[in-house]
Amino acid sequence: MRVLETENGPVTSQSDLSHYVTDFYERLYSSKVHVFGTQEAQEGCWDNVPVRVASETNVCLTKSLMLEEILKAIHALPKGKAPGHDGIPMEFFQECVNEVAPTLLKAFTTMLDMGEASTSINKGLITLIPKSGDHSKFGNWRPITLLGSVYKILAKALAGRIQTFLPDIIRAN
């Protein structure tokens, strides 16, 4: 049995492991970032940023999703990836695309119109994959989040829409 080595010694119980992992990531992701300038200066910085999205572009970006966008997203997503917490692989959607795409379009349209998503669409399953080095050290494991296929389809459809306008919004450098 492999033991996780920490700065405070080995972790052997499930409870201790849970506490250690939680503390590790809280420390990692909650470090204080020093921001230069006053609050007023930071807010005033945005006064000099020109509006980059023309009203015509905004109309295109905010229009209702179309079935073709959903179909394109489903076909563009890679096969053979681990499914998220829902357990549904992308291959299911690709095999049953004509049956599921209209239902997804209705669900996505409702979510976007209401401005809120179902509580389960953006849930992810976090797992650890080993990096190089000693696997008994927790820092040599990388967390990844496995997102559900429905979320991936919506994200891909929206990303495909905005991709057309990115050169007008973001400078090449």
The count of strands amounts to 4
Rounded radius of gyration (Å): 22 Å
Shape: flat
| Structural class label | mainly alpha
Main sheet properties:
2 strands, antiparallel
Would you identify the regions where 5 or more consecutive residues have pLDDT less than 50? none
Mean model confidence by pLDDT: 86
The figure for the number of domains is 2
Strand order of the largest sheet: 1-2
The arrangement of helices and strands along the chain is EEHHHHHHEEHH
Distinct helical segment count: 8
Helix content: 40-55%
Q: How much β-strand is present in the residues? A: 5-15%
Gap between N and C termini: 50 Å
Can you describe this structure?
This protein has 173 residues and is mainly alpha-helical. It has 2 domains: 1-49, no CATH class; 53-169, no CATH class. Helices cover 49% and strands 12% of the residues. It contains 8 helices and 4 strands, in the order ββααααααββαα. The chain has helices at 14-29, 39-45, 55-62, 67-76, 90-95, 97-114, 149-163, 166-169, and strands at 4-6, 9-11, 124-130, 141-147. Strands 1-2 form a two-stranded antiparallel sheet. A hairpin with a 2-residue loop joins β1 (4-6) and β2 (9-11). The longest helix has 18 residues, at 97-114. The radius of gyration is 22 Å and the shape is flat. The termini are far apart. The mean pLDDT is 86.
